[in-house]
Amino acid sequence: MRQASTILSIDTPGRGFTDITRAMAEWLAGVGIEEGLVTLLCRHTSASLLIQENAAREVRVDLANWLDRLAPEGGHYVHDDEGPDDMPAHLKTVLTGVNLQIPVIDGQMALGTWQGIYLAEHRKRPHRREIAVHVMGD
Amino acid sequence: MRQASTILSIDTPGRGFTDITRAMAEWLAGVGIEEGLVTLLCRHTSASLLIQENAAREVRVDLANWLDRLAPEGGHYVHDDEGPDDMPAHLKTVLTGVNLQIPVIDGQMALGTWQGIYLAEHRKRPHRREIAVHVMGD
Amino acid sequence: MRQASTILSIDTPGRGFTDITRAMAEWLAGVGIEEGLVTLLCRHTSASLLIQENAAREVRVDLANWLDRLAPEGGHYVHDDEGPDDMPAHLKTVLTGVNLQIPVIDGQMALGTWQGIYLAEHRKRPHRREIAVHVMGD
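Predict the joint structure of the above. Result:
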């Protein structure tokens, strides 16, 4: 049984979803674990991680709009000194979460056919985001 | 230290919550881990996993209604070619999440007294759902 | 490779967020793991765990108000026999989640600079809450 960990840096183009499934699979192939557990932690409070549909792009359009409705700008927030998109970004991060765990079976992440791993950027402007990644197994 | 993993298949009766606590406990007893960590990943984008109250059935009725209010059908979604309940199902999956982790202490999952593990089906019709399960410990 | 687990007891002052980052770091230092994975499970259905901004207190004020809007009291719930704040507390727990996982790198939890670990109490009155904590690594 052994483990490996790294910090993955991802540049986001601003509000939206960046597919990191391939980056994760490549890192995992380099480590060479056949059975185990992968963990991701997004190290930010206005960006998050989620697993969602990787086929229809429209799903992510609807998801972004829905998050905007649930956590709108102009919501009379007390915390408003970092711009109108900052507090909504914190709320969207809480709703979607900063953690993911994926079992590794037969050398592959045990994702479903239609599942992709996404980094969700909730600020309007581009950011460089860090994800702590850990795997344990053999 | 050792590990085990499997794919659990669960038939859902359509929209609602299926208690999988016993199925998980039985699988874990078969593996025979005394201390460790259990991970679950729902391999779908319109069904999810959550831990909630296992006593009052009304809690799950209210939860289903609340999810319907937060992610309603007829919400002018761009993605609507898989039926009116499809995009709401994706949104409910994002809100509730597809991952759970449960420490194993003294041979038992360290759940609270009132906690049960539920597979949440967000589509109206019955589906067969797969959950990737992994345990590591000794 | 080794592991350790414990049940952490936290007294909450009622509705709000209690920073447990230091308690977690102290427990971890006592265990002495350099690289590994920490898992937390809140053993309740009306309190939860989240990682959020540890600097501006106003973020947590806005977060509490936002949760109140998404899961309001007086929402015509079927389950109302444990008080008006009970069903909203279950819903807020589902939205925020009861699990966290944090990679340990170089002997420290790999949290971002502005991230703190919070126990979120969703009931109005003070409660003693239990968190199952597990770490694995070496």
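Chain B has a mean pLDDT of 96.
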